[in-house]
Amino acid sequence: MITDRINFLRDELNKLGYNYYVLDNPLVSDFEYDKLFAELKELEENHPELVTPDSPTQRVGGISSGFEEVKHKYRLYSLDNTYNYDELRKWYERVEKECGKGIKLVCELKIDGLAIALTYKDGTFVQGATRGNGIVGEEITQNLKTVKAIPLKLFEKADVEVRGEIYMPKTSFEKLNEENLEKGEKPFANPRNAAAGSLRQLDSTITAKRDLSMFTYTAIIENASTMPETHWDSLQYIKKLGFKTNPNIRLVNDINGAIDFCKEWETKRFDLDYATDGVVIKVNSFACQKELGFTSRAPKWATAFKFPPEEISTKLLGIETGVGKTGAVTPVAILEPVLLAGSTVSRASLHNFDEIKRLDVRVGDRVLIKKAAEIIPKVVKVVDTEEHEKLPEYIEPTECPVCHAPLEVREGEVNLYCTNEHCPAMVKARLEYWVSKDAMDIDFVGPSIIDQLYNLNLVKSPVDFYKLTIDDFLKLDLVKDKSANNMYNSIQLSKTRPLARFITALSIRLVGKETAELLVNEFNSLEAIINATTEELSNVDGIGDKIAKSVFEYFHTDANIQMINAFKEVGFIFENRQVEKTTELQGMTFVLTGTLNSMTRDEAGDKIKQRGGKVSSSVSKKTSYVVAGDNPGSKLDKAQNLGVIILNEEEFLKLLNISLR
Ligand SMILES: [Zn+2]
Hints:
The chain is an alpha+beta fold. Helices cover 37% and strands 20% of the residues. The chain folds into six domains: 2-52, Orthogonal Bundle (Helix Hairpins); 81-306, DNA ligase/mRNA capping enzyme (D-amino Acid Aminotransferase, Chain A, domain 1, 2-Layer Sandwich), CATH 3.30.470.30; 313-390, CATH 2.40.50.140; 424-496, DNA polymerase, domain 1 (Orthogonal Bundle); 499-569, 5' to 3' exonuclease, C-terminal subdomain (DNA polymerase, domain 1, Orthogonal Bundle), CATH 1.10.150; 589-656, BRCT domain (Rossmann fold), CATH 3.40.50.10190.
């Protein structure tokens, strides 16, 4: 039965997703997961009446016109904050006075994210809302469905309401900001803002692309097989239901245990990939919680210990400037080394020259530096001193610190740019980008190797990498046969990278990975992208005028075209993705079902269309062929009933005139 298969696939995908996104313990390869997912998607496409809102296929998102307000069934209270251990002890004294001695506590890290409330009926996710003012929030169910750590279906048919914190991992945050900068967009201030911005998208397909996760920390269980009597047990229970809880929680016997926990995490928190700003301490027993009750705004049975801000003052020894791959010149504060949040800091970010002006930072000042959710500390302000006024004001550079070419300001941008296309700093930064994971992904060739290759005049442009011989590598410091071979091979191997990676690697201004993919999908070949007008470029969904102009200018610069030709000479083949259209399958209609081994179903469809054939999603008497791969769906049964010719993969490839590898 189809419904049986659909249910099986959903359960299987739910289980696999749970292990991957909640337990961080993948059970199968992405490929196997995608295969099951594709099968479910096909079955649902053929039987739209069987699609349910909790199906794993419903995580893709869509457009909404706005967010409705919803009244929370249970109010989301705020917590009283404490900043020192004495206050924590006083709080515990009040707890003991009400409930007697020896009250156990649960300590949890306070995640610096966005509080949300999720409602489950009969084990199915039915509604998700922001905290709002605690009484009324905004309904963002569709967006929350794209967060894979949020179960759409629980392992049990329970009625529960849970609260949790949506967060963006620090590493994903930094990556997102890099991409935004590349696109000329404003970076997010911290991971919390990035998470909030991602969740409040009207187009939830954007939310789906962002790496968001959630820790669940409270459950109100209305109807379930187990009705826990303590907070600790309820956390263990919701974990079993399929929710992701933070692994760093601890049940302690008294306030001393809680204070130990706070002290421990004050420094350890910086090793985590998510931002925390304190510890939440809750009375474990629900009976005792009930006895304590609430004030008008907060529960008396819980309190939040806030970590002291990680700020410290130190002397600004100098302001260094660096040149990036786009030629942007950015300032970095050089500091008298100081211990901050468990590590010695001697450099801090100053963002750009406007920021220096705004803060009136002068070399010799005492400055306050802060390490918050961000990984790199930044200069927050100047500490008032008598010396400050006597120090000379910082003067913005007018020339490149490396090649001394004049700097320019570009319209609508805060950065200063080096105007010399051959600036050694910029060229080296581009070479480093060329080999990076996001671009051509070349192993064994790091910054120090690039530095040497550049200084020996062996590599001045990315195309030079491909002209290097093994002997060239042996000229470098400490490079022996084996590593010379490794470097040579991994460079040569990169010639076969997909076109989108090549375009990304070119470091065209405002063109990152995502834009490169948009270009390739639209134009299919490098030739077509080079020949596109600015209008054609800006007509592509997701590419604005600024990017279009930048791409056009890049490919209409002689030096760049010469470089592209040089890539062809060293063996790059920029194959067109689309083959010439032919007519051999004209008048034939194909239906594809199941998984093919040699290509995806989309590719198979493209190949049919290139030969003049048509692809349909449903089988009828008019269908010429049904191509059945592995695990075919119901279309195969239908084809058999109607007497339509069924091709297996081998027969299909033969028909396309493609030989089996
Ligand atoms: Zn320069």
